[in-house]
Structure formats: C-alpha cells, structure tokens
Amino acid sequence: MTLHQKSKVSEAAATWNSRFASEDYIFGKEPNRWLSQQSSLLPKSGTALCIADGEGRNSVWLAGTGLHVDAFDVSTIAVEKACRLAAEKNVKVNCFISDCDSFDWKDCAYDAVVAIFIQFADPAERERIFSNMVRALKPGGLIFIQGYTPKQLEFGTGGAAEVSHLYTKELLRTAFSGLEICALDEYEDELSEGKRHLGRSALIGLVARKSTP
Asked: What is the CATH number of domain 3-209?
C-alpha cells in the first residue's frame, strides 16, 4: 500500500469513527429491509461475508439465519459495536477491522457476499471491491448488493453526494457480466434505518450467481 493509500485509509477510519461514536446505532440494529426480503435466496447453511458492515446490523442478522459470517469495517468503533450487537443477539460473527483493499480476500471462500450501501467507494475502488467479491465467491454462490441510484441526489436522504459513487442498472450489469443476474431492480422506498437513512430514497438491488464449473 502506498503512502497516499495509507493516508486515505487513516482519514476514512477517522471519519467513520467520528460518525459511529454515538451510543446509538446510527443505522439501527435491524437488517437492511431489502436484504431481509432476499431471505429465500440465501443459502440455508454455509459461509457469508459482509463488506464494510459498520455496526453489524446485517452480519448479525445473517448469523441469525444459521450462516457462518465474516464481516469487516475500517472503523474500530463500528466493529466494537458490531461485536456487542452479536452478543446481544446471541450469535457469532467473525469481525475484522480492515479497509476494503487490505482485507484478506480468499478465493472461492463464501456462499454469499453482501455489500449494502458501500458507496463511499469511488469508481476505481469500487472496481477493485467488485472484482474481489466475485473472486471470493464459491461457484454457485450469490452476491447481494443494495445501493442508491443517481436520483437519490434529488432526495438527499442518505448516501454519497457524488454521482460517480452511485449505481445504475447498466453499471451493475457491466460490473457483474460474468455472473448470472438473478434480480436487478430499481425502485423507490421509504427508508427508516436509524438516523442516517431516513425518508424517500432511490434504490437499486442486485442478486447475482457465480456459475458452477
């Protein structure tokens, strides 16, 4: 990692530590609604990875379904809160403090890879993350992604302020062209996820499967 990259990671960690410093869970303790609605597609057993999972709401929920879950976030405070939430819900999540580039991505390790609102990533970082997600997925495994579309800039109810960080159907189809697209939907919904995602929102959800040999 270059000195510039280390500086960016340190800056990101400081920013997110400041945001997560509240005693409250700033995105709430319940899983992302879209993700929970995909429960019928989730494997009944196996392994899952939650990327940049913050305070743990999604990884803890996934662990409650019976999956063995790894999760990471760049914020030490968020990871501490995730561990507390797992203990509160009486489930086990393997929590790691890491940025997306430094995480120990293993080939063909997970039955499900989950990325919910990771739109801190600029296009170059996003390309690396998406590539690593596919690499980490087992054959037959599923990727789950939810994000905001560019229309979200009109609502201003959460998410990135830069249009280049937001998702379109075309962007996701291109990024995951080597996978089978099981679902790809743009829609609007009223979010109520803590204090940070609150109100009418422009959303997109992708489920994609890695082919088996």
From this structure: 3.40.50.150
At residue 1, the pLDDT reads 61
Q: Can you give the pLDDT at residue 195?
A: 85
Residue 185 pLDDT: 97
Give the model confidence (pLDDT) of 161-209 as tens digits.
Answer: 999 999 999 999 999 999 999 999 999 999 999 888 999 999 999 999 9
Q: What is the value of pTM for the model shown?
A: 0.95
Q: Which residues contact 176 (CB under 8 A, 6 or more apart)?
A: 130, 134, 143, 206, 208
Tell me the C-alpha to C-alpha distance, in Å, between residue 130 and each of 101, 118, 154.
Answer: 11, 11, 26
Give me the residue label for tokens 């409250």. Answer: 24
Q: Is 45 exposed, middle or buried (0-12, 13-18, 19+ CB in 10 A)?
A: exposed
**How many Cβ atoms from other residues are within 10 Å of residue 144's Cβ?**
26
Distance of alpha carbon 97 from alpha carbon 71, whole angstroms: 9
H/E stretch holding 142:
strand 137-148
Measure the CA–CA gap between 15 and 13, rounded to whole angstroms: 5
> Which residue, among 73, 77, 185, 156, has the nearest Cα to 118 in the 3D structure?
73
